Amino acid sequence: MSHPTAGPLRHALATRARVVVETRWFTGAVLVAILGNAVVLGLETYSGLSERWREWLLLGEGLFLAAFTVEIGLRAAAFADRPARFFRDPWNVFDLVVVVLAHLPLMRENATLLRLLRLARVLRAARLLPQLRIILVAIAKSVPGTFSFLMVGALLLYLYAMLGWMLFAEHDPGRYGSLGRALLTLFLLTTLDGLGPVVHEGLEYSRWSVLYYGTFVLLASFVLVNMLIGVVINSLDEARAVEGAARPPGGEPGRCPVPAGGAYEAELRAKIAEARRVLDELEAGLRR
């Protein structure tokens, strides 16, 4: 059986933690810590600096881990009155996993896993930078469309590679002597790098090479690339819409935006005042 004062205490803890978490200085401090962690991780790649400043780098790593632990503790405390909502935000889950794993002995004994885990902390900057977060969400949303694009592109490469092998294998075995070489040649040509010399060499043994390369470049470098750009732009628009719905101005993701002005705001303020009055009466009754 829970203590009768547990509810008000959790509410008070969540309110105070939320005030700290939603301040600009807190967000700025966390961003500075993330960037500092990235700098320290980069310095460790230089063997001379790593050996000379080993103790200071280890101290910095410990301080950053402590700072991230305090941060995730405050973010979790902000949801003390509604713990389930904390885990509804994927960024909260990601932050919690990264911090908790860093404290496990198994991770700290494995240098490679520990470096990967510390590298994952750099990704946490995305939750503090709205534009970067939108781009990451857009990339995730574009995966299904990108997969379809890759399937179409692979089919196109295969067809043109087989056609190139049949037409040019005898005259240009270095580029079309096998299916693998033909695929590599065409893949490099999608970037239009070295297209001129290849076309000129092809004209020496067949005029049809102009039609072959022209249609391939048109389909692979223009049509397919523009299709991919369209998929990414559409995903970016969806990500902006999701971010706008999930994050009100100056608030945390997952909270509903409140329109400013009008009868709705006045009604909402009245409900908040009534809720506060009820909580005050409940707290006063518990103290008697």
From TrEMBL:
Domain Ion transport: 24-240
Gene3D superfamilies: 1.10.287.70, Voltage-gated potassium channels. Chain C
Membrane-traversing stretches: 25-44, 56-78, 146-168, 211-233
Record-linked Pfam families: Ion_trans
Topology in membrane: Multi-pass membrane protein
Domain of life: Bacteria
InterPro entries with a match to the protein in the record: Ion_trans_dom, VGCC_Ca_Na, Volt_channel_dom_sf
Compartments, record wording: Membrane
Keywords: Membrane, Transmembrane, Transmembrane helix
Protein name: Ion transporter
Source organism of the structure: Streptomyces durbertensis
